[in-house]
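Much of what follows relies on a compact textual record of a protein's fold. Here is one such record, which you should read through line by line:
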Amino acid sequence: MWAEQVLLGVIGFASGAVIAGGLFSFLIGLGLVSIFADRTHTGRQILLYEDSIVLGGILFNIFYLYQVRIPGGSVLLAVLGIFSGIFVGCWAMALADILNVFPIFIRRLKIVKTIPYIIMGLSLGKTAGALLYFLGRWGA
């Protein structure tokens, strides 16, 4: 009985390590860390960026799996939500930048002058959808 539990634990840990390694490799492959360092002129702190991403992943998993309570209530939740949104947005933009989706799309549709409005609309729509979901109006 205990051998089965140990084996399942080892398999679970190894699977998680492989998935996390793949995700972090994908982030590095997209150039997300180097883009942050380049845009902020902080290339000397690139190891800090990488350590922060890994530490964030580890801490989130610990908090999620063991249901650790973090004091701070709604205020801290809002701050963490903003940071998570920024991270996901940067990730999506890095992926789109790698694929050169936006330049081709913009040229073909001839929407160069409306780009600021499109970006504002996308961000407001994302914010409104997240607020409606998390406030429980139409969430699962």
Notes: The chain is about 80% helix and 0% strand. The CA atoms of residues 85 and 126 lie 9 Å apart. The chain has a mean pLDDT of 80.
